[in-house]
Amino acid sequence: MEDLKLHGSIFSPFTWRVIWALKLKGLNFEFIQEDMTNKSDLLLKYNPVYKKIPVLVHGGKPIVESSIILEYIEETWPQNPLLPVDPYEKAVARFWSKFADDKILTLYYGFFMKVGEEQEKAVQEGLEILRNLEEHGLGDKKFFGGETIGLADVGLGWIAYWLNVLEEIVGIKLLEESKFPRLFEWTNNFKEISIIKENLPDRDEMMAFLKSRYDGLRVFFSHVG
Ligand SMILES: N[C@@H](CCC(=O)N[C@@H](CS)C(=O)NCC(=O)O)C(=O)O
């Protein structure tokens, strides 16, 4: 058996990317839940530069940054490939995977963590991100990876799950089926994959965690605003 440990948090979309990739590869690993308010010595040792999760530790060696971890997993365990063989298709898959990386914070934190005009601006930016994914990323494909789930799907997978929880808390809907029918369908296709379905965070737990963060932020804004 592989000596694999994943330091992460069940509340972190970056962590879930890695969990999904490991599970899709059929790998067993030990999961170590990190407390971001009290980072462990091991986390600081493994990721001294960014001090962030996730960290995958393979045979005692740490790999950090979720997108790099995904590439490492793909290269190390080629079964159930997440990337196509063709160099051009691979480049396209990596483009959307990078897009997922570049835009995650804009989409996630923008409308969740901002208020007033800044939030309105963030909503517009968020819609533009979804539009790009719908029109240029997915097109007529079932998954970003084509007929089967791939690297970009795993990178973007949080949208299929988190976004809806965030929307419910904030009371703003971004991913409307009428506006983004293909992307909406993709969220269902993603969650229908049995390995993904069996490995989703508990919605109530997520809701409680994110709601407490959101309420804390509203209190903060009411003091500074
Ligand atoms: N670019 C990093 C981002 C990871 C990230 O932001 N992790 C958050 C949790 S979701 C974290 O560790 N935050 C702790 C901190 O910023 O101190 C990746 O893709 O792995």
Key terms for this structure?
four-stranded mixed sheet, 10 helices, binds glutathione, 4 strands, Glutathione S-transferase Yfyf (Class Pi), Chain A, domain 2, 2 domains, alpha+beta, Glutaredoxin, 225 residues
**Overall tally of structural domains:** 2
Ends distance: 54 Å
Indicate the overall shape. Answer: globular
What is the CA-based Rg, rounded? Answer: 18 Å
Secondary structure tally, helices: 10
Class from helix and strand fractions: alpha+beta
Q: Which ions and ligands are bound to the chains?
A: glutathione
The proportion of residues in beta strands is 5-15%
Biggest pleated-sheet summary: 4 strands, mixed
Subcellular location: Cytoplasm, Cytosol
Organism: Kingdonia uniflora
Main location: cytoplasm
GO molecular function, one term: glutathione transferase activity
